[in-house]
Amino acid sequence: MSQLRWKWDFGLTFRQVVIWFLMLVLYLIFLTVLVSFFPGNYMLPLGIVVVFALAQYFFSDKLVLMSTGAKPALEDEYPKLHATIARLAERADIPKPRVYVMTSPVPNAFATGRSPKNGVVCVTDSIMRLLEADELEGVLAHELSHIKNRDILTMTVASFLAMIAFMIMRYAFWGSLFNSRDSGGSYLVIIAVAVVVGVVSQLLMRLLSRYREFAADRGSAYITENPAALKRALQKISGKMETVPTKKKQEIEGANAFYIIPAISGESIMELFSTHPPLQKRIEALDKIEAEMRQ
């Protein structure tokens, strides 16, 4: 079986650039509408959004860990987990991330941190019991790929426009209620534009998010040279997830976009709005990588 080495993912970079460009265009259109209807009046909500964005950039890892109740995994308590992550991080050529464990019956894992230097990998205690050693390696390598690709930073930047649209929409909504009838129509225009910008930006974010998962799966295959193990892990996690009570999955749903497989799946919503690609498509992509390695 031939060795696959980590290589620059042109597809991921291209999609990031295109989506950032489209979001910039949306932002400029939105800003033009705001200036046209309310010169100066939009500065307060815009300033609030900037503060929120900076807080998300610098504290996103802490916020996600707090929302999930994850705790630091002490090395003497989880020596195998630390050793595995250290070895895989060395293969991925990134610093060893901080390691956290979350107590939950939902078998899952996620990564956070705005750069490889600030990387965090978190796993649930149930996933460590569910998976074999090589399968867990595949999952951990997937999360390290997110860190190496700076995916958390990418999604923070991508979510900035959606945050702007949401804040401006709320500001305009309350303005339309408490201002004169003469300006009411202008506020309604702002609300309509904000809704359109918010929906489009969310669609673009989810499109990028789905490709990020494919890219992280590929990265796992490059790091471990064992795509079959990741396939088995994804199938086991998905199968086990179906047996976990909905209430338990809802308890950790806040970090859904970060998980290797979402706690609440997208079967009930359109695939277009999903943060993750369908499991079968991920398996098929890993099949192709495995076939490539056999050549």
Quick overview of this protein structure:
With 295 residues, the chain is mostly helical. 67% of the residues lie in helices and 5% in strands. It has one domain (10-294).
Structural write-up:
By secondary structure, this protein is mainly alpha-helical. The protein has one domain (10-294). Helix content is 67%, strand content 5%. The protein is built from 10 helices and 4 strands. The chain has helices at 10-37, 43-68, 79-92, 125-130, 133-148, 151-178, 181-224, 227-241, 246-251, 279-294; strands at 71-72, 98-102, 109-112, 120-124. A 4-stranded mixed β-sheet has the order 1-2-4-3, sandwiched between helices. Strand 3 and strand 4 (120-124) form a beta hairpin. It is globular. The N and C termini lie close together (7 Å). The model has no long low-confidence stretch (mean pLDDT 80).
The H-and-E topology, N to C, reads as HHEHEEEHHHHHHH
Helical proportion?
55-70%
Strand order, main sheet: write it out: 1-2-4-3
The pLDDT mean sits at 80
Radius of gyration: 21 Å
Terminal CA distance:
7 Å
Q: Total strand count, please? A: 4
**Model regions low in confidence, pLDDT < 50 over at least 5 residues:** none
Number of distinct helices = 10
Structural class: mainly alpha
β-sheet strand percentage: 5-15%
For the sheet with most strands, the description reads: 4 strands, mixed
Number of domains: 1
Instruction: Note the overall shape.
Output: globular
